[in-house]
Amino acid sequence: MGRLPNKLKQNPRLVQHVMSDGRASLALDFYLGRTEAPVYDDDGNPVLYTKGAMKGKPKYTVRHQRRREALNLYIWVAPRTAQERQQNKSTLQLAEKIRFEREQEMLEDRKGYRLKKEKESNFLRYFEQHRDNEAFTISVRKSYKYSYIRFTEYLAENPIYSKYATILPMDAITPDMVMGFTNYLRKKCTGEGPRKNYHWFKKVIADAVEEELMRKNPCKGIRIVYDTNVMLKEILSPKEIRKLASFRYEGEHREVQRAFIFCCHTGMRYCDVSELTFANIDTDGMVMRFTQKKSAGRSAHAAVVTPLNDELLKLIGTPKGDDPAKEKIFILPHKGTARKHLARWVKLTGITKHITWHCARHSFAVNLLNAGANIKTVSALLGHASIKMTEKYLHVVDALKQKAINSLGKTNFDTEDDKD
């Protein structure tokens, strides 16, 4: 009898349909994945399980997607002669060859009917997949995490959208909802927070549109715009930096303080200063060479050469171990811990500005320009790819100059115009 081998794991799978003339037609059965859709009641609310291990969780309906392709090949169901058995053998070999070719085509996506991933209909769960995707770097996952938190808070706090707090259908996201979210971010976040949170939200939306989970992009035309020439972070003056450097208190973290003051005088980021070793220091040439972590491999200006003076060499110190090339100059805690020590230090010093670690880099640039340094020099010291990136600091310098002039007060000199 002509029978097909039962190979359930093959995709596509060879199947047969018995006909009335004693033969069976051969076909390929393709499995294209499945889709899930939440179940809603008559009022439009998600239906939840009421008992068992799934109690309290939303119900979903599952649909499996399949496709069948006729091969126009036939075998004898009950071959009677050696010729019919040989014909079956040859036909099955040809059918298996076609099946294997189709399998490779699916894997290589040449036919355009690739295996679809399980289609996600709940945007919040899709957002969580981005947040938890280990293929992304820790930094990217954190960015998705904070954006997700802000978006779910927005839904929960908005009386119109609170019903979507657990299940948000892809097509329920409208431009009005997105516009409301951008306004919410402007109220809740400071500095570049609104723009960054919206940036990662838009990436999730764009991925959903690309995967055809959404028909239209609800973010189209909606932006959070800032004047790139406006500095959003506080600046420490040279006087304030000296005040911080000389201030001591109980429970201080001396390494955090030493590294921060060093950054105020070199413009280094936390990610770079925390990895700085004595191999980066040329004491004879009085220079420091390092590659910026942020732009390594992406910019021709990633490598930075910073001149050193006696004060900076004093901050750097000397190696204590047997392998200076691998010895870190600053033994710093996790960035979050360093941030807390910095905030406490600034507060106890009496400085009322909101100072983050990155303020050291901005302060370095502004203070150099204020002292008369050439903008090209400052741009090179910061490792900027173009002077345009450095120009935003010029606006801060101009504002500080205006503030200094205004601080002089009135002249109290009577002019002829005053007498009129």
From TrEMBL:
Gene3D superfamilies: 1.10.150.130, Intergrase catalytic core. The keyword Nucleotide-binding does not apply. Pfam families: Phage_int_SAM_5, Phage_integrase. Belongs to the 'phage' integrase family. The lineage of its organism: Bacteria, Pseudomonadati, Bacteroidota, Bacteroidia, Bacteroidales. It comes from the Bacteria. Residues 231-406 form the Tyr recombinase domain. This is Site-specific integrase. Keywords: DNA recombination, DNA-binding. PANTHER family: PHAGE INTEGRASE-RELATED, PROPHAGE INTEGRASE INTD-RELATED. InterPro entries: DNA_brk_join_enz, Integrase-like_cat_sf, Integrase_catalytic, Integrase_recombinase_N, SAM-like_dom, Tyrosine_recombinase_XerCD. CDD domains: INTN1_C_like. PROSITE patterns: TYR_RECOMBINASE.
